[in-house]
Structure formats: C-alpha cells, structure tokens
Amino acid sequence: MDTNTLTGLKSAFQVAPSDELAKVICFALIESGEESEIALYLQQAQKTLDESESLKLAEALYQAELHETARNVLSEELLSHKILVAKCLNESGEPEQARKLYCSAIEADSSLESHALNRTFNVEVKVAQINNDDKPKLKVVEKMDLASVTDMVRYRQDTSDFSDVVGLEHIKKQISKKIIMPFQRPSLFQKFKKKVGGGVILYGPPGCGKTLLARATAGECKASFFNIEISDVLDMYIGESEQKLHTIFEKARSSTPCVLFFDEIEALAGKREHSRNSSSANVVSQFLTELDGFSQNNEGVLVLASTNVPWAVDAAFLRPGRFDRMFFVPPPDKVARKAILEHHIKGRPAESNIDFSSIASKATGYSGADLYNLVEMAADEAIDESIEAGNEVVISNQHFKNAIKEARSTTTEWLTTARNYARYANEGGRYDEVLSFLKKHGK
Fold this sequence. Notes:
The chain is of the alpha/beta class. The chain has helices spanning 3-15, 19-32, 39-45, 51-63, 67-73, 79-91, 95-108, 115-121, 146-149, 169-184, 186-191, 210-220, 240-253, 266-269, 278-292, 334-345, 356-362, 368-389, 397-406, 412-424, 432-441; strands spanning 123-130, 136-142, 156-157, 198-203, 224-228, 258-262, 301-307, 325-328. The protein folds into 4 domains: 3-145, Tetratricopeptide repeat domain (Serine Threonine Protein Phosphatase 5, Tetratricopeptide repeat); 149-328, 3-Layer(aba) Sandwich (Rossmann fold), CATH 3.40.50.300; 334-406, Helicase, Ruva Protein, domain 3 (Orthogonal Bundle), CATH 1.10.8.60; 412-441, no CATH class. The chain has a 6-stranded mixed sheet. The protein has a two-stranded antiparallel sheet with strand order 1-2. Helix 1 runs antiparallel to helix 2 and helix 4 (51-63) runs antiparallel to helix 5. The termini are far apart.
C-alpha cells in the first residue's frame, strides 16, 4: 500500500473511527514497515481480529521487537498462540513463566516443538508412552542446568586431619611421603620435575575408613576437599555424563590446590569390556582424558578415589600418570579397634571399667562400621534391661559380651574374594599388601 493511501486511511479513521478500518490500518502499517504506530489502532482492531489474524499481527510486532505489544494481541488460552506468547514472555524478562507455557504447548501438540526453543528453555522432549490412538505421547523434562550441577561449592566438604584417623599408621606414613609432602613443599618437587597432584585409589573392605582417610588427606594438604558422588556425574542423556565430568575437572583446575574425591570409582571407571552399552565406555574414555589428556594440566589437583572392588576398575586407569598409586585400607588392628570402641561409647551412659582391650581382641576382622554397630547393639541390650528393670541401666561389660555373640564381621566375605585375586591375578604385585595382611592375620 502506498503512503498516500495509508495517510488517507488514517484521516478517515480520525473522522469516523471503526473496528474494521482500524484492522485495515494495522495490516497496512505492517506492510509499510511502520509497526511502531500499530498501538494507536490496536485496541479497536482487536475486536474484529480472528485467531489467525491476531497471530499474524503479533508475529510482525514480535519481529519489530515490540514484545509487550505483541503479547497484548495474543491469548494464552489459544494453543496456536502459546509458542509466540512464550517467546514474548522470555524476551520481556519472564523466562520461568515462558518455559512453563512452552512445555504445556508442546505436550498438547508435539508439532509445535522447536529444537531451538528446547535449548532456549532448557527442556528435553522424549516419547513417554503410547496412548490408545497409537500416537506417541511426549513428556517434557527440564534438563539439568550444567552450571549449577558442577558448581564446586555444592561439593565442598569440611576436611579433617590424621589425628581423626585411628590406626592405619603405615598408610598415613605412605600418604605423607607420596602425597602430602609434594603439596607442602612444591618448589622442592618442581626442581626434580615432580608434579604436585595425580591420582590415588584407596581400596579395601567396606566400612574401614577410606572416605575418612581421603578427607583427612585433604586437610593435611591444606587443600579444598570436593566429594563428587556418582549421581553427580552419571546422566540418562547421551553425552551429558561426559560433559559434567569435564566441567567438574575444569573447575577443579581453577580451584587449586584441591582434592577431588570419587567414592565407588568402579561405577565411573569400570572395565570397558564388561560394559553393556557404549555410553559407559564413553564415560571411562572421558575420565581417562581428564586425568592425563594431552591438553590437560592437573597440577595441584589430587584425584582420590575409593573402591571395594579394585579388580573391577579398568586397567587403563592404573598405569603411571593416572591412578598410579593404590593403598590398601585394611580392617583396623587391635589398638585401633579399642580406640574406635572408646570413641563411640563417649556420651553414652556406661561403666567406667569396661574392658575394651578384651572386646577388641574378640572383634578381630571387624571394620570401623562393624565396631560402631557393636556399640549400638550393647546400647540396645542396656535399653532392654532398663525397660525390664523399670530403672536406667548403664552399658556394661556383660552387655558387650551379649552383643558380640550376635555380631558378625562384614569384612570376611570381602577378604575371601580379595584372597583369590591376590593369589591368582596379582599383576605387578598390585595386591601384595592384601597378601601380607592375610598372611599376618591367618586369613
């Protein structure tokens, strides 16, 4: 429409305003690229606009970046309008409301889905089930925000020191020599071209203090301690696990000195030949790349891991430069068992003359967790007796004697399995420490 005709329409509207004329002027303004004037005629024009006309007009306003005006033309109740309303809301600074509206629209009609908007609103669309009409029913899932998932603050935990670790003197000496000293005197080790950091695996029966030892190591190194749980890495979507792992390592490299601790490392570093799907193998490959990839600099990052099944860890992790140091964390010895029992009895009503040395002697092979359970069982005995007697009874030697008759060591099964691996699959003397422990204790 030429300028003279548009000017004539505007003049006619001034003389005799009408809804139809207002609509004609609105579309004429779009055609001439003068969308900014539409607001003058919009209120009357809307009275005659049908669903498709409103959408067409709003799209033109949206393209002209008149997002609020475009939103006023649309209706959230109309399915055909919802996507554009969502886009307008997002541009107007209301992303959460926009995301909800977009999700409701594509759940109602999958043809409205846009991969670009999926990324904008951080959602994932997948086929959830088949309904009675044999049409796929879509389920919209909010994707995990990678930035928040890999925010290292959420993984940070308090550290301790070796004074909190009872027993394990041999391991503490080894850790002091091979791990802590490089952190405390980095200049000396740099002169000999020795890097500060690396990877260490703590292995042994469950409940023997591997996590406690890792936390104490971080404290002795004066480094931040980040406890990375398996659920923080593994993801149901292809490629997400590898991306999370990479981001965690990247942020750790910018937070040195620090300790990254992975419990149950076999879930992330299991033998690839046993993987049932390629995604598990991809996570292993990504982990290996992060440990010593060509472009990675892990100086000042100590990667600690623990596992109950070291024989399930992929052999590629155990070569020099990756997890090249392995420490066996055995069940506590008699001195340590006595100290653990004394620690767990503190704050409980108990006799002062309990013979913990005798109890520790009878608890050979018990883990720290088993000893805590033994104290709990003795406390239960005292509670039962208190209820029957009608007055409070403190924990005594007899209660421990009764409890130890029922208690069992949970390390026996693990030691039996480990013995077989130590005897018949001890490549390079990897399990020599296990053999020494079994020989010393007659297992």
